[in-house]
Amino acid sequence: MKRILLILGVLYLFSGCEREHIMTYGNDAYIQFTGKMTDSLEFSFTFYPNKDTIEYPLGVKLVGKPEDREREYKVVVVDDYTTATSKNYILPERCMLEKNEERSELVIKLIKTPDLQTAPVRLTVRLEPTRDFMLGETSHTARIIWINDKISRPDWWNSTIVNSYLGSYSDEKYRLFIEVTGLGYLDSDDTAACRYNALLLKKYLNEKKANDETVYEKDGHTEMTVTVIGG
Amino acid sequence: MKKAIIFFGIVFSWLFSGCYEDKGNYDYIEVNEVTVTVKPEGTYTIYGYLGEELTVAPRLTFQNPSDTLEFDYTWKLDTTVISHERVLKYTHEGVCKIYALDLFVTDRKSGQVYTGSVSLQIDSPYKYGFALLTEKSNGATELHFLRLEKPENSPYYYTPFYNLYSSLYPDDPLGRKPFYIAENFTTPNKGGDELTILQKEGGCVSLNGALLNKEVALEDEFYGGYPEGVYPKLLAFCSSIDVMIGDDGKAYSRYIYPKATQPDGFHLARFMSIPFDFDKANTYIDRIIPAHFWAGLLLMHDKANNRFVAISTNGDPTSGKQCEIQDNSANSDEFVNLTNFGEYSLVWVTTYEDGAYGSGNYRCVFKKGDEFYVQNFTLAKQYSSTNINLSNKGKWRFEGSDKVSDRTVYALQRNGKYMYFAEGKSLYCCEFRNETGGMRQIVYPIHDFDRNVTHLTRDYNGERLLIALEGGKFFIFHSIDQVLGSPDPWAAGNMYESPDDVDLGEIKQVIFKYGNFSNSSGSSAPW
Lengths: 231, 527
Fold this sequence. Notes:
The complex is a heterodimer. Chain A is of the alpha+beta class. In chain A, 23% of the residues lie in helices and 25% in strands. Chain A contains four helices and ten strands, in the order αββββββββββααα. Chain A has a five-stranded mixed beta sheet, with no helix packed on it. A five-stranded mixed beta sheet of chain A has the order 2-10-8-4-6, with no helix packed on it. Chain B has a five-stranded mixed beta sheet with strand order 2-9-8-5-6, with no helix packed on it. A five-stranded mixed beta sheet of chain B has the order 23-27-26-25-24, with no helix packed on it. The longest helix of chain B is centred in the first third of the chain and has 16 residues. Chain B is mainly beta. The interface between A and B is medium-sized, with 14 and 22 residues.
């Protein structure tokens, strides 16, 4: 009996030595976005005044080892969480991770439509497994993009900007500022940049006026002006 | 018995106290009091130059003149002991500023200390005087300096520092092909000055006004570099606005933000590479007329539209905007309208006599046909307005018309009384006398040189005139009433001639370097 108990005890101890197949990077390849699904993204056509389409990149990364071959991953639109219509986006036909690369850019073509000026739309995309990749962390397998063409007074258009550079805010002036300077942001502490870009807008307004094409505010009779100090 | 012991105890204590040797104040030493005076008569400040030996001989008055050897001397600069000699010989190598200089005279016998104090202002040796920008025969840019000295009880004179820049910085040449130099100041005064040199090769550069080392390239002071295809031609530094005129005839400005919003100093704001928007798009600036630091306006000549234009330069809400010169003059025989010269063309213009805050006095020479005319006016910018008021209008046919051409060079004494002009090799003076019947002009020759005169530049008050000639030669003429009234003004007033054995190079421009903004706006020397 003692011998039986001894044998059972040894067997029990050896049972702890069973090899468990833990998932490691060395064995399989996983694909995921670089950002979290919960960190939704915002894109506004406002800052691209002369463009109707924009190629919007989303970072994608490999969890595993790079290989000396191209590998395909797949992305789909999650219809239940998407309010954008198919007129607002085009997904790439094929998504490839280049050989020996660990990162890739998923480039979605965003398309400007008139309705974006009134309300933003949401585009949710999700990675799907392929024969080359399994899905990585759940929190990183989808991304949400809010798309708009709506303009509103930005935080940086503060009293310094009003008094010293651009004058009072209007959507029309902001749109024109972006169109003329190509910028949607000013740092009021960067006096040189503020003055330079305000002068650019002033120059544009003056040239328009000289050509009998005076730019007016939305009311149609108030001339658009800037208050740039120092000339 | 006990009472007797106490009584005698008190009595004996009192008696013995008389035996105590009083070592108090009976060993008196004869005191030789000293009055120490370090400050010069008539001023509270001694001036010294950085790197140059300064001698200060104190005036000591001893109560007992026969006993002056038993004293120790200690000189302190602020809190640092710099000498133990009675007569201070000191070379300062530190910072240019005003120090407290104290002399402590200690009587070794008594230990008594007597003191005298004065302020010692250490200046750059290149602070105040003429700066000459020249081009050597190989094209190299050079800077020479003539320091104005104030000796006691004798006339001012100039100490030359020839080839100054290359002697200070032989391994860091300035550049080549210079053509313009301008002085910039900070407010407050302690920031001193900078010199900016425009040159065709090697880059335009600003020099520290005290040590003349390179501070910054002008191109780096532009937001995004120079405007595309544009190179600097002229430069004016004003109170709140600096203006660079490019070789495209356009003005590019820099706004100096109010002191309340930024520290003092230079290079705190950038020039914009966007040209100034004048009321007329074809405005072409070929001449700037900087007035004193607080004039409030920068007058410029618009060659394309044959007129003056002005930019507001003081720190009011109009700063940096184009001003409107309120000139309704309709009869050019009486006064040439400043906003439209009509048949007249501008030959020369300058400022003189600092006006009040926000104003400047101007005199110019106009030409119509073969005749030349002198015109005088004052411009005063209204505070917080872009309007410029015009006053003191006057126009006269120039009595030197038969002696001048388009190449003539001019200079006006600070008080506006004497206007010098040089045509070719000949130097003349035109005296303006405001008499009952009107302005009387008296033109007389001063001197004929052996080569052409290229520049005439007055010093801070116009009492000394630097006459630059071709081939790197110059003279300084003492331009005062006594000299000009003498039978031979040149013989009486030729106070300095550059040596022939020093290669100065071709003189491209001469300015009077003031060292700081308050000096620049004063008609008297800073001593």
